[in-house]
Write the structure tokens for this entry.
Amino acid sequence: MDATFVQTPEIQALLDRVAGVESTGGDQRMKGIIRDLIEGLMVVIARYDVSEDEVWNAVTYLQGAAAAGELGLLMPGVGLEHFLDLFMDAKDAEAGLVPGTPRTIEGPLYVEGAPIVNSGANLTSDADDTDTLYMTGRLIGPDGEAVTDGLVHVWHADSRGFYSHFDPTHEQTPFNNRRRLKIAADGTYAFQSKMPSGYSVPPGGASDRLMKALGRHGNRPAHVHFFIEAPGYRQLTTQINFGDDPFAADDFAFGTREGLLPVPNRQGDSAHIAFDFHLQRSGDEGDEQFSTRKRLAVEPAPEKEPA
Ligand SMILES: [Fe+2]
């Protein structure tokens, strides 16, 4: 038996019924998507002679991954999140858009509601016995103009590779290493924080098991995530990966991209990264919006009264 079995009239008729092809109700595009998706799964089952046990084990695997909150890790792990970036890049190129700083994966660990602070702020609230990171740069529009208004959202891990709000040790205060920086009036940004470390997928979890089955690892290089929003410019989702990290060129999540690999200038117990962001002008208001992806939302901490 091989994949031609899927092309038999009986299976093709089944697929038509599955996708509601003959029903007048429903959404035409969704019918096409579901038909192709299920047919693709059937082809895999037939081509690899996947057993009934294996199919149900796969269902159990996905249920476990979802329950553990790991679907957002599997998406980059299997390259689908990077594929979305490449697909959007290709559509931009087709539309003749001048590229700015490359976009790259958001990952699953952004938290809404981080404190809004002035450029120059310290992002790290908790003690962390590691080097201090200083990051500086400019925000530049397509005509070389300074982008003087907007927010740079920054989030990164601590020196153990854990993110606040997702820390298995629950040791971090809310929004540690997370802030929304106001762009300075001269079009620059700056912040300091404690150097993040790279990290791996949770040991023994769904992503780890898949990586082992594929002979891959689940490590990411040390990196810093950014969203940039500025009126009149296209929203940018990107991150920098430290160019001197052993996994810089071998990121399990495929987030590393050409142009996003600065090497920190390490001196004594501090490191400096200079990095400019080149923004695209927005074509319409939709360009300035974030994707509607569901993100963890946390009430901002109340402003502290000055002592
Ligand atoms: Fe990350």
